[in-house]
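In practice, a research group might receive sequence data for several interacting partners and want a quick structural hypothesis before committing to experiments. The following worked case mirrors that situation: the sequences arrive first, and a predicted assembly follows.
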Amino acid sequence: DQQVKQNSPSLSVQEGRISILNCDYTNSMFDYFLWYKKYPAEGPTFLISISSIKDKNEDGRFTVFLNKSAKHLSLHIVPSQPGDSAVYFCAASVYNAGNMLTFGGGTRLMVKP
Amino acid sequence: NAGVTQTPKFRVLKTGQSMTLLCAQDMNHEYMYWYRQDPGMGLRLIHYSVGEGTTAKGEVPDGYNVSRLKKQNFLLGLESAAPSQTSVYFCASSPLDARHNEQFFGPGTRLTVL
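A structural hypothesis for the assembly, expressed as tokens:
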């Protein structure tokens, strides 16, 4: 049973518009959440994270929102650029517990020029 | 710094053959991990290590063995490969004091078992 789910396998948006990627989790023990970005033929790279004590974290064009009661987080990219086209993985963890991550299935984002 | 490197990048095996995937990191990280990535399944943890000489099972350990004889290296072995082990394998490492709990990934090894 997947503890972290990304229900949209793919998402297509126009350049300059907002991209919203969603993630749901089931394990209440998770208290730290990360987003990774992956280009073809490369390993995933860390993008942004959020602690469960916050409901929002922003880094440039990227903002992650956390709704603990709904066990839901989302990644907003504004404005979207063609270089953002990649697979995005949501990951959940228990902070300071061996840095163990549980990953979602990924969402492929395509940003059209 | 090369970061996390993986050898080989590609490999084709026949059912029943064995092989070892090598992961090396030059960041002096304590933790190391092996994942497999399959379509729609995300990254699933195979085995991990919290330090030199230690290993532990992850979510999908069957059919794999690992060793961490040196801090910088983490080896993943397939003793008798099966078609179900066709996948992309990623190695990752992480420091004890990772600020964001983040792991640093290698470029992956694409393995096909015929």
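Before designing any experiment, note the following. The CA atoms of residues 93 and 100 of chain A lie 6 Å apart. The interface with chain B takes residues 4, 6, 9, 32, 34, 41-46, 49, 89, 93, 95-96, 98-101, 103-106 of chain A (CB under 8 Å).
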